[in-house]
């Protein structure tokens, strides 16, 4: 009799485990405290291209010619990821976000304050907005910017560094710098791409 229960129990545990996996793409855009949320895919300081695959609810290394895609440039200057429950364009990817702060591991969900939007253009001609944000918790903020004006006034070199890094980090498909937009534009972009 116990031989019959073991496979059944194993099946139940497997189903329960897969049913409990977090679907990061479907998390709310804003937390219960009405703070914007960011899902981290690529930790600050990493060269590994990691992206979230909503079909299997897993973070995966992107592949390039059958191998893990490694950025052949300086490592990511911040924690790169997406804003949950947003969808940009045809590929279903969430709106990109770069969180300026200490390294956060892949799969971390952070409450953030948007301070700017870096506007880029892909080789295809598609616009590529990246919301630039700081952690909402003051204890996690390395850069004390709360809006575009304070970022520009107190940390102009951060804007230059980010602009240069994103334009030159991918030599096979270089991006074109379009411009910087403020936190109000970032909020409009978030609202524009939120799933209804």
UniProtKB/TrEMBL annotation:
Residues 1-25 form the signal peptide. Pfam families: Pyrophosphatase (PF00719). Coiled coil: none annotated. GO terms for molecular function: inorganic diphosphate phosphatase activity; magnesium ion binding. It comes from the Bacteria. GO terms for biological process: phosphate-containing compound metabolic process. Its EC number is 3.6.1.1. GO terms for cellular component: cytoplasm. Its cofactor is Mg(2+). InterPro entries: Pyrophosphatase, Pyrophosphatase_sf. Keywords: Hydrolase, Magnesium, Metal-binding, Signal. This is inorganic diphosphatase. It comes from Pontibacter burrus.
């Amino acid at each position: 009799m116990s031989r019959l229960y073991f496979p059944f129990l194993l099946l139940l545990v497997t189903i329960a485990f897969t049913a409990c996996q977090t679907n990061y793409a479907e998390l709310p855009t804003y937390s219960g405290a009405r703070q914007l949320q960011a899902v981290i895919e690529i930790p600050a300081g990493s060269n590994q291209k990691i992206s979230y695959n909503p079909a299997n609810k897993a973070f995966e290394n992107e592949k390039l010619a059958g191998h893990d895609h490694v950025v052949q440039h300086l490592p990511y200057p911040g924690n790169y990821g997406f804003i949950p429950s947003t969808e940009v364009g045809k590929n279903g990817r969430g709106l990109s976000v770069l969180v300026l702060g200490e390294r956060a591991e892949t799969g971390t969900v952070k409450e953030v304050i948007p301070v700017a939007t870096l506007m880029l253009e892909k080789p295809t001609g598609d616009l590529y907005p990246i919301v630039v944000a700081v952690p909402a918790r003051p204890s996690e903020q390395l850069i004390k910017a709360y809006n575009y004006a304070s970022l520009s006034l107190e940390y102009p070199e951060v804007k230059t560094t980010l602009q240069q890094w994103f334009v030159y980090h991918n030599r096979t498909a270089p991006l074109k710098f379009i411009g910087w937009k403020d936190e109000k534009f970032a909020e409009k972009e978030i609202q524009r791409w939120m799933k209804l």
